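Duplicate of #3305? Posting structure anyway:
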């Protein structure tokens, strides 16, 4: 059996990047300044992948707060709800509030992953680029559903949307990773 060296999920976000990102989201910093800072820190993730000769790497998910936040970059039909503790740790996420049928709206994700691919190439990193997605069961468990009649309907619709988004990412990313932490819940 062959085991591939890989960087998975998110990378710790530097406070300087977090501050610029917050200002950008509030309209206090322009996109060019934000992307310059984002490029600096994303380059560090890819330089690490290059240094350890990782076969696969994410972009560190530096653009997002967590893997749940990524869903807001490719879905329509859910809004950001309150901060909720992520399982039994000191990590919090914005709960997706599902208000209508979820559908694909992946322009932001495609732009983000294209940006990351370009930065990866500029750093000379040969690792395959991965996009990270929250799995359907965890999306259901971590959301508040105000639309679907059953968990199965929500999970099936979400899985279909993710499949469409993955198709759209062909040629931009080389692989995907699915995060399903809810599988390990005691219940």
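Output from current build:
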């Amino acid at each position: 059996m062959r085991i591939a060296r890989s960087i998975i999920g998110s990378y710790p976000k530097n406070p300087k990047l977090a501050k610029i990102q917050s200002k950008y989201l509030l309209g206090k910093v322009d996109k060019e300044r934000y992307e310059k800072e984002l490029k600096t820190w994303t380059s560090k993730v890819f330089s690490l992948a290059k240094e350890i000769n990782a076969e696969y790497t994410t972009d560190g998910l530096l653009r997002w707060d967590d893997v749940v936040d990524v869903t807001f970059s490719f879905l329509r039909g859910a809004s950001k709800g309150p901060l909720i503790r992520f399982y039994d740790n000191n990590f919090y996420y914005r709960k997706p509030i599902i208000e209508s049928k979820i559908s694909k709206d992946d322009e932001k994700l495609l732009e983000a992953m294209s940006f990351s691919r370009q930065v990866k190439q500029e750093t000379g990193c040969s690792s395959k680029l991965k996009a990270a997605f929250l799995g359907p069961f965890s999306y259901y468990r971590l959301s508040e559903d105000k639309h679907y009649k059953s968990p199965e309907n929500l999970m099936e619709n979400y899985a279909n949307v993710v499949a469409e988004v993955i198709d759209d990412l062909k040629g931009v990313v080389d692989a995907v990773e699915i995060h399903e932490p809810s599988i390990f819940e005691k219940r």
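Confirmed duplicate; merging threads. The first strand starts at residue 6 and ends at 7. Strands lie at 6-7, 56-57, 75-85, 92-104, 128-134, 144-145, 175-179.
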